[in-house]
């Protein structure tokens, strides 16, 4: 939060985008930064980055080198984990036919792949895997799919990244003779379905692991299962225990793609998972990296913005099972084919998103004009593809700085997705809307949620969300300062400097990527690249030059300032990364905001 003890950074009280800039470090954190630098020998800027994220001299070593050994608790701390493991162990020993029902997003695909690989390695028949069609079946288990899995011979159903709110569907499963285990992380109602539910966000779970994505919960379940099978003497020379750590690439992918908070155990999952992924042992992920033209080692950025969207593209506008299938493939030719198809679907998804976003932004502008202080956008449109409403909601949230829901009107019953902002628990509020009878279905977590509702309840839902989120969003608005980690020169933005900063990563939700200000940069040149980005060449007073890009900035105050400001001076707030291009590593500077120096008039 921004506080009065944080004066405006470089005196910027109103940037080009209308935000105040403040130093991330408070006075007491400046002391911590100095202590970290002295005790551990880290550079000044890295120490400031650590202190600004609540790290102390006592916790710095663990933060910079997170390990599963130190950060992963006994999986049995999760409520009902013991019952889930006992039932799974019996199924493995008896070679039962297990059915896996996963969600259609990255987290569901990764969780399903983790389970499928482990169960096969443990000697089970190949599990039946069902990923529902987003449009025809909707989110979560459904009666028809479960009946089919039962008819094919399954006698144990495991739902992954779904199931916590699926009372009717899971009751039908139990009635048909299926045992059910739910492995999930979404917000849970007080009354749980008729199943063994392993979910750190159920009300009676005291594990403190509510920040895990479903793949993280799945990994802990399989770790407990491997231990139980070892206790039972299941592993032999002929059937060795699978290498669980080899699946951390999937856990890392899901953690980043699901925007899970990167603290504690999640940091270890992502750090170790990226190391696994760099070995490119998983044929499907290697094929997808090639299809996406990723040079060099994958980083957290690639998981969230390159791999994640392509895997999701199957569930959004194509075959929902493509992602999960790709992640378990052993045939490189088939993997290359599916990776190419997902890459193609992603391009198609981008075109659909662009058209829908234009309509959604126009409707959002109309709502903003009618009200001076909206707390939540709820826009709906005819013909919008249900598979892309979540992405469009994310774009609206970024542009208007408030939570946003985008609803596809596809009949009398409509579906939509919402994206939340810092300080707002969207999943909890959606569950309140379900309890109020405004939604037929709804759930999610703090930053994202899905809803199903009657067409004639959209206006009521909009009114409810604006009222329910008013206080939270007001507090978030008051705290909406751009927090700056420090000032940097163009010459200082080197690959070696970025390598040092990456020690504080991986960055993402809960561990924000460092933000630096380059003061008094002259705009030498600027131009539109692609359909919506602005690239600029900047020059500091000593002649050093810096190439930078502002993503999706065309038509925004930041884009206009760059395109109209050639020859002018600007303070540039940016995040830094390193990219490999044609075998050469170079700095990538991503502009987050701009400010005019006090002495500069436009």
TrEMBL record:
Protein name according to UniProt = Single-stranded-DNA-specific exonuclease RecJ
Could you tell me the superkingdom of the organism this chain comes from?
Bacteria
Taking every annotated instance into account, which residue ranges of this chain make up the domain DDH? 97-227
A Gene Ontology biological process in which this protein takes part is: DNA recombination
Sorted alphabetically, the keyword list is: Coiled coil, Exonuclease, Hydrolase, Nuclease
Q: Does the keyword Coiled coil apply?
A: yes
Ranges for domain RecJ OB come to 484-593
Key word Nuclease present: yes
Q: Which GO terms describe its molecular function?
A: 5'-3' exonuclease activity; nucleic acid binding
Q: Which residues form a coiled coil?
A: 335-372
| One Pfam family named in its UniProt record | DHH
């Amino acid at each position: 939060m921004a506080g009065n003890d944080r004066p405006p950074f470089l005196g910027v009280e109103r940037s080009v985008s209308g935000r105040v800039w403040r130093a991330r470090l408070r006075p007491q954190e400046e002391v911590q930064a100095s202590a970290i630098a002295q005790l551990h020998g880290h550079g000044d800027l890295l120490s400031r980055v650590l202190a600004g994220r609540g790290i102390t001299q006592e916790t710095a070593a663990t933060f910079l080198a997170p390990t599963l050994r130190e950060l992963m608790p006994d999986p049995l701390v999760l409520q009902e984990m013991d019952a889930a493991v006992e039932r799974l162990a019996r199924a493995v020993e008896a070679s039962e036919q297990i059915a896996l029902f996963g969600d259609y997003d990255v987290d569901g695909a990764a969780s399903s792949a983790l389970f499928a690989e482990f169960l096969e390695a443990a000697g089970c028949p190949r599990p039946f895997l069902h990923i529902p069609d987003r449009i025809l079946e909707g989110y979560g288990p459904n009666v028809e799919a479960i009946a089919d899995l039962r008819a094919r011979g399954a006698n144990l159903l495991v739902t992954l990244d779904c199931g916590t709110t699926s009372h009717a569907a899971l009751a039908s499963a139990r009635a048909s003779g299926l045992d059910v285990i739910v492995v999930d992380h979404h917000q849970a109602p007080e009354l749980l379905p008729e199943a063994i539910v392993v979910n750190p966000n159920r009300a009676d779970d005291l594990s403190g692991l509510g920040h895990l994505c479903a793949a993280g919960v799945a990994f802990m379940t399989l770790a407990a299962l491997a231990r139980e099978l070892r206790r039972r003497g299941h592993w032999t020379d002929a059937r060795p225990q699978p290498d669980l750590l080899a699946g951390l690439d999937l856990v890392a992918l899901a953690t980043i793609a699901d925007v899970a908070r990167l603290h504690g155990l999640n940091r270890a999952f992502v750090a170790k998972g990226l190391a696994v992924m760099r070995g490119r042992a998983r044929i499907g992920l290697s094929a997808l990296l090639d299809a996406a033209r990723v040079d060099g080692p994958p980083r957290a950025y690639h998981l969230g913005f390159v791999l994640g969207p392509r895997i999701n593209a199957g569930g959004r506008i194509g075959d929902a099972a493509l992602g999960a299938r790709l992640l378990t493939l052993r045939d490189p030719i088939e993997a290359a084919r599916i990776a190419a198809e997902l890459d193609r679907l992603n391009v198609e998804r981008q075109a659909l998103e662009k058209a829908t976003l234009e309509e959604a932004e126009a409707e959002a502008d109309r709502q903003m004009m009618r009200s001076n202080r909206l707390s939540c956008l709820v826009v709906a449109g005819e013909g919008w593809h249900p598979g892309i409403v979540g992405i469009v909601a994310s774009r609206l949230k970024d542009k208007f700085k408030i939570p946003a829901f985008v609803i596809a009107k596809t009949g009398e019953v409509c579906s939509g997705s919402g994206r939340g902002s810092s300080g707002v628990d969207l999943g909890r509020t959606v569950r309140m809307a379900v309890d109020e009878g405004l939604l037929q279905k709804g759930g999610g977590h703090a930053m994202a949620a899905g809803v199903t509702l009657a067409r004639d309840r959209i206006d009521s839902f909009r009114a409810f969300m604006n009222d329910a989120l008013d206080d939270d969003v007001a507090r978030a608005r008051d705290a909406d300062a751009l927090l700056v980690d420090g000032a940097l020169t163009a010459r200082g933005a080197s690959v070696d400097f970025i390598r040092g900063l990456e020690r504080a990563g991986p960055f993402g939700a809960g561990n924000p990527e460092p933000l630096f200000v380059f003061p008094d940069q002259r705009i030498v040149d600027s131009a539109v690249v692609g359909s919506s980005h602005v690239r600029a060449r900047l020059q500091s007073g000593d002649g050093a030059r810096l190439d930078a890009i502002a993503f999706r900035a065309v038509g925004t105050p930041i884009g206009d300032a760059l395109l109209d400001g050639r020859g002018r001076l600007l303070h540039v707030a940016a995040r830094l990364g390193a990219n490999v291009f044609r075998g050469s590593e170079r700095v990538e500077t991503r502009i987050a905001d701009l400010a005019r120096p006090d002495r500069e008039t436009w």
